[in-house]
Amino acid sequence: MSKIIVVTSGKGGVGKTTTSAAIGTGLALRGHKTVIVDFDVGLRNLDLIMGCERRVVYDFVNVINGDATLNQALIKDKRVENLYILAASQTRDKDALTVEGVEKIITELAEQFEYVICDSPAGIEKGAHLAMYLADAAIVVTNPEVSSVRDSDRMLGLLSSKSKRAEEGREPITEHLLLTRYSPERVARGEMLSVEDVEEILSIQMIGVIPESQAVLKASNQGVPVILDEESDAGQAYSDAVDRLLGKEVPHRFLEVQKKGFLQRMFGGKE
Amino acid sequence: MNQADLLEKAPVFQLKGSMLALTILELSSNELDRLDIQLAEKVEQAPQFFQDAPIILALDKCLQSAQPLDLVRLLSICRKHGLHTLALRAEHPEHLAAAQLLDLAVIPPSGARERPLAIAATAEIATEPSFTPARIITQPVRSGQQIYAKNTDLIVMAAVSAGSELLADGNIHVYGPLRGRALAGINGNLEARIFCQQMSAEMLSIAGQYKVAEDLRRDPLWGEATQTYLNAEHLEISTL
Question: What ipTM does this complex have?
Answer without folding.
Answer: 0.71
